[in-house]
Specification:
CATH topology of the largest domain: Rossmann fold
Number of helices: 9
CATH class of the largest domain: Alpha Beta
Number of domains: 2
Strand content: 5-15%
Amino acid sequence: MRTKTSKTSGARNDSAAIVYCRVSATDSQSESDASLENQERVLTAAAMANGYTEILVVTERHTASKTQPQLEQALTDLASGSASALFALKIDRLSRKGAVDVLRIADRAERQGWRLVVADVNLDTATTVGRLVLTILAGVAEMESRRRSERMKDYHSARKAKGEKSGLTYGMSTTASTSTIEAIVESRKAGESWVKITDKLNARQADGRKWHSTSVRRVFDSPAATAMIAV
């Protein structure tokens, strides 16, 4: 759900900010409504305190899908210059994917010239302290990646000890080419959404087929991809 404000044509609209509010599908309707209302109130006040006079409120109710279409649209709006800042209350409200995805968003903010503010960790890309927080998040993301890799290596070592072929006997096989599997694995490690990965594969007509998010996930969950992740 989006509450729209006007856009300044041409250059970036420096008076506008987007506040992103998200609730989980596990919350009851009343809890979700209360949470959205609180997030909107707190973030709107924060944006106005920082001098923004036009507020675009973006709300998202998480469903069974792992995508966040409203967030992706907000990022597109920021890239186009419709607003100059993105405010979120917490990291887990901004993204379901954790530190890696927050870093992806922060990288877009830096490259495109807009501001990212996440209140609970004092992350503000316009401040020195905020950039320090980003450095810490990068370390956390790297640690998470290494721990996942270590868990997979331990898993395959245990299977090997039992005489099982690591990464080959469990899960559904895939007909995707090795280069496509590698592209999916690397994109996912970089924190890209299933939708973005799907669009990239379709743009280059990978393996000469039409890709969908579900088929991309199946490739990522295949033994061939699991073996690459463990390396």
